[in-house]
Amino acid sequence: MITKVVHGWRVGGLVAYLMGPGRAQEHVRPRVIASWDGQDAGRQPQQDDAGDLELGPLIRALRAPAVAAGLPERDEGGKRGYVWHCSVRVAAGDRVLSDGEWASIARELLDGSGVAATGDAGGPRWVAIRHADDHIHIAAVLVRQDTSRRFWPSHDYPRLRETARRIEQRLGLTVTASADGTAAKAPGRGELEKAERQGLPPARLELTRAVRAAMAASCDLAGFVAALEGNGYLVELRRAPSGDPLGYKVARPGDVTADGAPVFYSGSKLAPDLSLPRLMRAWEEAGRGSDAADPVSAARRRVDSARALVGAARRGDAAEDPDGVAHATRDLLAAVGDWSDELGTAAERFDRSARPPRGPQRGTGGPTSAGLRRVARQLIRRRRMLGVQDDAGAAAVALVVSLAALLQEIGAWQHGRDRVHQGAAARDAARDLSQWAAGRVPAVPDPSAARDHAAVVLEPRQHRTVGRGSGQPRD
Length: 475
Hints:
alpha+beta, three-stranded antiparallel beta sheet, five-stranded antiparallel beta sheet, 16 helices
């Protein structure tokens, strides 16, 4: 069940649109299914002689508290509008809900979000409108009827999401993600339309991939900027009066505003973990240690150690935070993703699983995470030497097999913490890695790797737990 909330000023315009035919005649039999006063379908506007709905009485009733409060119907100073509009949609495969079920859902969402508490006769006025099988709209005027005072519900969106999850579980609907801050920021409508006109991927998505790859390949800010500029991207740094770097922003060449200025995105707006302070912590962490003569073999040892650590965490016995391990694993996947499009897809699928709720809060991890980041950087430096046709390629396949097993372990750990979507992202990425390796079994260099390969490829959803290794691997 997807919920989306926007704010506005004109409840009359909103109701007129929701009860009208839609932009492409897509609204089928628009009707009121629930209302603040319990009249529900009784609030359905009557038809006039021409067959049009008489919306005036409903709109005036909804607006009455706002009129009593003297509130305008347009923005007068950059404030957020007092009209709360929530659209609620079930997944494509879910069953069709009745009007009565949707009415109950609307009341539960309003109560759970703090907009309109059940039994509060002096609360705001609202209506739920349905004009399709799979979704409804809720329009509420955030002004109390008893005091004519405007109000804002506290943390309404995360509370709305948690309420929606409870409804999904109770009604057997597709379970959606909680509002935990792990979903990537999606390109806006304007960004998507611009990308379509240009025949390019949205700039936000391209820049996120480019910044992540440059971060994994570099060991400091200078190298990071050089890596981005070497790939043709525009980079600007923000510095304090002392000259210390505070942040950065990046733009895709040719992506400009109407005035011809580059469209920049700050690192923190691309993803919370791509802010400059977090990048610098990751570089500092990965810099503790020496380079390996054979980064592919070193990476495999690191991956096996990380897999053992996450398995220990599932049993309640871990010396390091698995969230940090998952976060560092993404850097290694970014390095491996350079080897083929299929592996690049796996790295992108894993992205959500690498972000703990509300982003990494305790730094970037410990020794295992540092080791993963270090070998990721080494792999990127030597990526032109790696392939699947030579000895390095055989070792690379073995590394991918080990990575698939690690992602399965991370997925099982996330699932055990009720992080449904993070767990699914890890398992989907593991499946991509397994499929890539499946056609390269003869290249696996030793029997133990072949056994691991069979376990991951043939049973991609079976979570295998290994014991804790003795100490950290050497590289």
